[in-house]
Amino acid sequence: MSTLNETQDEIVEEFSIFDDWMDKYAYLIELGNALLPLDNRYKTQSNLIEGCQSRVWIQASYENGVIHFDAESDAVIVKGIVALLLRVLSDRTPDDIINSDLYFIDKIGLKEHLSPTRSNGLVSMVKQMKLYALAFKAKGDKPNL
Hints:
Blueprint: H1 4-16, H2 21-34, E1 56-63, E2 66-73, H3 76-89, H4 94-98, H5 104-107, H6 116-139
Antiparallel strand pairs: 1-2
């Protein structure tokens, strides 16, 4: 598996192919459509991300020292953003997630091309994923939070 930064670099490279933001949005939608649906049992209030205009659920599980994230959104572009976050942060150690600098978001121009509410939602998603990592790290290797 590639490192967190190698994965970010791959994403930056993929997005550099597109000159036009409409093409980048289309690619985001494509990524979102490829995301596996989240099991309904995880679509709970506790997994719902506060601060998002659309509904986003993030489920985290901790096994063998790494955190696995599953997520879904009811908005197509947001679902693509979620897919990117999962690709970068899922199946990493808590320390990798906590210490990550998610530079791909700025490098692909995502932040500047999102509405303020979507941008706030993106910040909320990252914050929640880092909070999961902090919680799992504090808990140690004991299964399930």
